[in-house]
Amino acid sequence: MSQMNLFEVPTEFKDRLEQLKEAGLDRIQAELLLQVELGFALIEYLELDDEPVTAPWAILSGMPLRHPRLQNLNEMERRAIANTRQIVPFSARFAWLGALRSYLRIPLDWRNYHEFTPQNWDSYIINAAKNLRHQVHQDLYERCLIANLHIRLRKVKQVEAKTTYQFEAKTEKETVIVPVRFTRQQLRNAQIQPLAWFATTRSRSSFSLRIPDLELDAAWIDRREEALARQYGWDQTARGHWVDRFRKINFHKVQQNGTLFPQEEQILELDGFTNIAGMVASGKTTVSQLFSVNVVRHHCDRRITLVVSDVQSAIKLANQINWWFCNDPENDDPVAVPILGRSKRDAHLQSFSASKDYQEHRQRGQPHWGERWLGTACPLQGQLKERDFIQLLDGKALKPGIEPCHTLKKMPKSDRSKRGKNLGSSYLCPFFDKCPSQQVYRDMPNARVWITTPGAMAMAGLPRHLDLRPIKIGELVNEQSDFVVFDEIETINKWFDDTYAEEVVLTDGGNSGVFDDIGVKTEQFSKTNRVMPPSTQRWTGAERDAQKAITATLTLLDKQVGHQVLRNWIKRGYFTPNSLLFKFARRLAGLEEFEPSEYI
Question: What is the bridge-based pairing of β-strands 165-170 and 175-180?
């Protein structure tokens, strides 16, 4: 089964695969049989079995289909769709059609669905194809649709003493293979007191906060900053003047009829999603920071996560909050930590070192908490032989962010294999729990304030030493935070839009459009491969048809040879590329831009 899924395939599904193999089907056929029929079973469960056999991919793709049956799904039906998407890897149309062709080559006696051919399958409905031969399969599909799937755990292995391992390291000139070994004493020492981590999710409840109460927190911060100013010689610009900032906030709740609540009812109710709108510099950021202070001071059982637009803002804010509550970055446990991705750790470190905030701290002799989380010391590098360190790494430290924390490989015995790629199972670095560069993970479990960025939430994962689930930072935030505050939401929304609703440019005059590049490669391939397999011929034909459609569309929009009516239609009103394509496709098909309201 695919190892890219977040959840495990049910055990009984795997067991049935083994039974089919023992009964005479090869594994590929057995897996395809169960996957395709589970796709059909999903459509039947959703009471859409009057659709053709080509329909399941549309449900699996996750497209927002304007179908009345799909607009009113209950909880179990949504679970059935989610489960099937984890088990059936055919969320693209051509992938599903290819699976159907392979399915038809499985002996009919094994199948619960009749013959249907590419000539009629766009009109051959699922219900008409059903011929139940194996009730055991039907029962399996029904259980898979309603099962509570378990999250998939990544595989890990521990290193052994006196065994040579290797890892890839990038130098300025090339990527080199570096060997490393461990002693028994080092491995025994490394296993003492492993890092604490999160065993369960948090139990959440609604929360109310009186906005006027935040003035007491603002006054507390001012007193704390006054003490820091005397200790480190702060000037007036370094102080927040939080009471003054709080008094400029004019907070009002809006009733359902659009009118404002009375001024004295300034109560913020937090239960689900809450939106706070305001003009630029109206105090939204001030409220979010005062809210985090209120949580730390008065709600010891809650955690708040602040999402800011960039890495340096996250580090700066974590440093600021920690100085309000702590005195010594070296020895105190922080109340706030920045949670950042590791792949660009070197860039984060360089930007931090050059930042105005860090330079001001250095000038006045005040330690910066950012140094605690951006350490570059790698204990694994201390295990390298001096000869390897000089010859392979040019006597330079490993670049921050590319340390082989979970990418150690056993060194092949032959020299020829050693010069090749890093193959085989991955092993964990035994020094992770005490590694200075991993300090943030030791601080996270007890920190009451997490500060992260949309990039880290969407893209950064967690070390395998701590969490075997293949989840992202955003999923951990959702699991372990009582409140999540998105500051400057318009910039964060753009980041999430670019990540989860990526725009693919089909053509842009030859610069970076998909079809500008792939058309050339297709024709180059065809020059030396005129005789192609049927599947390749279908693909090249579809690519060429798409090129024709792009050319025809752009011709219709051209100022000289196109049509003014069409150009005016495209210019009318705001649109997204997806909505424009949807409306355009319906117009080309002779339909209205949207379905009549009674069908929605």
Answer: antiparallel
